[in-house]
Amino acid sequence: MFTGAGGLGMGVCRAGFEAAVVVERDRYCCDTIRENQERNLKPLANWPLVQGDVRDVDYAEIGGEMDLVSGGPPCQPFSLGGKHKGYLDRRDMFPEAIRAVRELRPRAFLFENVKGLTRPSFANYFEYMRLQLAYPEIVGHADEAWTDHLSRLERHHTEGRGNTPSYRVVTRILNAADYGVPQRRERVFIVGFRSDLGIEWSFPAPTHSKEALLWDQWRSEDYWEVADTRKPDDESARRSQKSARRLRERPTTSPWRTVRQALADLPDPEFDAEAADDYPNHKFQPGARSYPGHTGSPSDEPAKTLKAGDHGVPGGENMLRRADGSIRYFSIRECARLQTFPDDYVFHGTWTESMRQLGNAVPVALATVVANSIGERLEQERNQR
């Protein structure tokens, strides 16, 4: 559901799931998926894509037991960069995610959304969504306010009657950088397993850390030797050195991946346009400018969170800041690298439209990690049964 450019869907399929139906309304996202299907790109090639409003989907037409429902309901109602309307926003599609769970009764579900969903002003609605996913059969009445429905769900939850098909739901904010994505991207993940399966599960432990990167940069200094570049000597570097001195030993995790590492083998589209033409969507986009609070992503850190923007692409988050202080926009290909899409994945539409798709996407690598963990646990349960 809410497939977008396909980041979450690709990760889920890489984890071994097979798509029964793929739903997306936006025509540009659908054009992107179709273009990659025409190029026989796996795992999209056999996706049964439905271009249309998810509210029109009849789940009764999908036969057989469903292992997983996944998707990223539109995040604009809860995004820090949006209008903050939350449940008052007509773009809130969580009710449709809950309907899919209620009608399909999958063995598990996986939903992703912006970190802003968990902030205090949305705390009650976040709990409302969580309880609806836990008890999807307790449906709100047509004339019932959501707060009254929440109260009814709370009473049922505390009564513990256990006579309604339910899900065990866990939520956590994950930073993509902690799982090998070269971007600091915090998102809330909501995972549930059908309670009759008796599955115990927790989110995968982080595999990468900032502390390990600081060690490699300022204690062993291996980072600069491998990168074959000079160490910076500015205020930011001095702060990092100070933090690194507090580390007593090298962390056991891998270091955060940086922009420099992610883009190392890509030619600079500003200065080597001919070589850049060998890569799809790798064109220089002029017009980048820096201003307070929007200074771009430093080369030797994970990128700032790529954003779609409410009115076009916000410059500060989608810019590269080189070691000499110069800036430029990331190309579409570079943003795809930062979102861990494969290099042969082509984005359809203008630079702004493609950046919107990328800014709304789930990093493929992060989706794969979470979906792998879910899939392995489902397989264990199936084998035990």
Identify the overall geometry: globular
Count of discrete structural domains: 2
Structural class: alpha/beta
**Please, what is the average pLDDT?**
91
The proportion of residues in beta strands is 5-15%
Determine the CATH topology of the largest domain.
Rossmann fold
Number of helices: 13
Assigned CATH superfamily of the largest domain: Vaccinia Virus protein VP39
Secondary-structure element order, N to C: HEHEEHEHHEEEHHHEHHEEEHHH
Q: Could you say what the CATH architecture of the largest domain is?
A: 3-Layer(aba) Sandwich
Count of strand segments: 11
Biggest sheet: strand arrangement: 3-4-6-5
Radius of gyration: 22 Å
CATH C-level label of the largest domain = Alpha Beta
The level of helicity is 25-40%
Q: How would a crystallographer describe the biggest sheet?
A: 4 strands, mixed
Description:
The chain is of the alpha/beta class and 385 residues long. It folds into 2 domains: 7-206 and 363-384, Vaccinia Virus protein VP39 (Rossmann fold, 3-Layer(aba) Sandwich); 209-350, Alpha-Beta Complex (DNA Methylase, Chain A, domain 2), CATH 3.90.120. The protein is built from 13 helices and 11 strands. The protein has helices at residues 7-14, 27-38, 94-104, 123-134, 146-159, 210-218, 222-227, 235-245, 259-263, 273-276, 332-338, 351-359, 364-384, and strands spanning 22-24, 49-51, 68-71, 108-114, 167-175, 186-194, 208-209, 254-255, 297-298, 319-321, 327-329. A 4-stranded mixed beta sheet has the order 3-4-6-5, sandwiched between helices. Helix 1 (7-14) packs parallel to helix 13 (364-384) and helix 4 packs across helix 5 (146-159). 40% of the residues are buried.
